[in-house]
Amino acid sequence: MRSTAQPASKLSPRSIAVWTAVALIGAAGWAMLALARGEEISAAWMVAAALGSYAIGYRFYSRFIATRVLRVDKTRATPAERLDNGIDFHPTDRRVLLGHHFAAIAGAGPLVGPVLAAQMGYLPGTIWIIVGVIFAGAVQDMVTLFFSMRRDGKSLGQMAREEIGPIGGAAALLAVLAIMIILLAVLALVVVNALAESPWGTFSIGMTIPIALFMGFYLRVLRPGRVTEVSLIGIGLLLLALVSGRWVAESSWADTFTLEPGTLVIWILVYSFVASILPVWMLLAPRDYLSTFMKIGTIGLLAVGVVVTLPTMKMDGITDFAGVGNGPVFAGSLFPFVFITIACGALSGFHALISSGTTPKMIQKETQIRMIGYGSMLMESFVAIMAMVAASIIDPGLYFAMNAPAGVIGDNVQAASEAVKNFGYTITPDQLAAAAKAVEEQSLLSRTGGAPTLAIGVSNIFSEVIGGAGMKAFWYHFAIMFEALFILTALDAGTRVGRFMLQDMLGNVYKPFRRVSWWPGLLFSSAAIVALWGYFLWVGVHEPLGGINQLFPLFGIANQLLAAVALAVCTTLLVKSGRLKWAWVTAVPLVWDAVVTLTASWQKVFSTDPKVGFFQQRANYQDAIEQGKVIAPAKSMDDMHTIVTNSTVDGILSALFAVLVIIVLADAARTCVRAVRNPEGTRMYEAPYQESKLVEPAGLIATKEEKAEQAEHEAALAAAGQQSGESGGGSR
Predict the structure, then answer these.
(1) Predicted TM-score (pTM) of this structure
(2) Is 389 exposed, middle or buried (0-12, 13-18, 19+ CB in 10 A)?
(3) How far apart are CA 507 and CA 514, in angstroms?
């Protein structure tokens, strides 16, 4: 196997001084977070700890992996160059591809998970987000991208089937489809909880659909190629929709856009079905483009706002719920559930689908995987840190009133105030009412899912910088739109991907399904995928125990299962390719992820605590039904039957996920042992070496050497073109 490692450059005295300063800033941030006891500290220290750690991790650890472990080769042609067809395979500018990859991986997960995990205090979640991304999440994304790129952009499931074996591959494919269903249901549930009974939010988000359609037709028909032009128009229309939402909420149209959760479910299902079958240029691409601008801009402004306003952390570093595991937001102890709840900001298996999907087919040079694979994941992790900040700077009493289900805190401010007092925190009914009035919402009680909590934190910070208290409502709804845009993009894109997967599977039985443009198959597959995740969405909305409380741990387990699959594939490929001494780079996070996932699955299946174990929960409510009793928070016998059904389904899925990860790990271990014992007999599916003719920088900004190399390459091309022209002229 041919590979050329890039030589590591020695640090100059100036670089040593700079990186020493960066390390000291990060260390100071960590020291303040860890040593503060019984006192409020500035959120700016969390930002300092994160940015300092990211900088060190990217500069040193990612470089070590790229040069020593993977041995990236800038002379080797990528699939984008070798197989360029202008459709799926196409060499794409590294800056554009960085934006695409970030937009694809950064959905609502890094916003929602940290908000929920704040129940246990800001410190455990912050440690996992930062340490986890440096040594696990970003590593998985970069290594998966590298191996997929070396195999002509093959998907994770295909690599698992070829490199591990048919049994592990089948388990991986089944896991991917199951994860997609749970993922989409939870994301949609976040939208429903954010927009329910909110005419301002519903109108503003609804208007983003015609705005995205207009942008799609503008670029396709009216003004092709005018990206900057349509971007400015789109952003202007978004802000107009946001401002108009307030007018609608105060007008006679308010009732029209004040929707019950069940009604929102129906509209979201209809939207997702239609959007998933429309051409990508019409809705998906422009919406994705809009949401990328908003996410990067908003998170950047939020970080600046934290530094300017220096808000203090109101939430404890570690709360009592971290030890006892009976928290009202989600049940379970710190280990393993804080690591399951914070999935996307630290380690996300879903990213492996992107790193083995569109991105490896578009990357120009192998040397760019460090910036795109590792760098994008660091960016997403910072989104998660800012979500943790937003959840931790608001009053803890308000946090728990917003994130505990209605069955626990009641449906009015008096009951909620009393319930929060029982949690160990204090907030008066007047304060709860005032908080809702400040952002022009009827109520903030039980707005689970993380989005409204993040929006409150964002509005508190932004209003201190721009507009004061009078702008809190505007910034709150701006944040709701900001989150919902990403989630809607994930819903139609995820439904489309799920449809492709189902069509491939059904194509083995009836061949016309393999044609993705065959309309009967397209419509049937899209409807089936929407129906599957729509079931879990409907269940979540009508779950007496709180949909997020029930579904998010299941979502976290599923997502971490996929991460285990990706890391198992990467570890197997490191061993098979003769890199056994470096296999620890992916094997260590794999072992940690497997322990966490299997522990969580075991507890969700076998725990005797009904707040944690699904089957124990089912047994308790089933016994009560047989005795004719109604147990709180259920309010009727119908609620009791709903809980029994949902607990049964969730328990079965948790067990299924555990079995799948064990199958994949066992098959991967068998393959690794066989490769070590008989390296000569190991079969690799890597594409053969072909020399690259492209000359492109590895990072976001070209170095002096790279600029000189590009200039020399362009001069050579110009000379060759001139010589060719003269030769052609002479022949005539």
Answers:
(1) 0.86
(2) buried
(3) 5
